[in-house]
Fold this sequence. Notes:
Layout: H1 8-20, H2 22-33, H3 35-63
Helix pairs in contact: 1-2
Amino acid sequence: IVTRKRSASTALAWLAVVAFLPFLGAVAYLMFGEIRLGRRRSRQYQHLRDAVSQSAALRRQFAL
Length: 64
């Protein structure tokens, strides 16, 4: 909760939920707390893969 790049208020809110409702808070965090982060990383990874593919194609084109 704390080590991820997120706002301090979001981290404190998740810590409060987990502290006051340990089981339900942990389940809620696993279900809802990481969804956006996973999607964002997936988009960043896809963008990086596309950029590398385009760069490799340009290098092959100019190498011939």
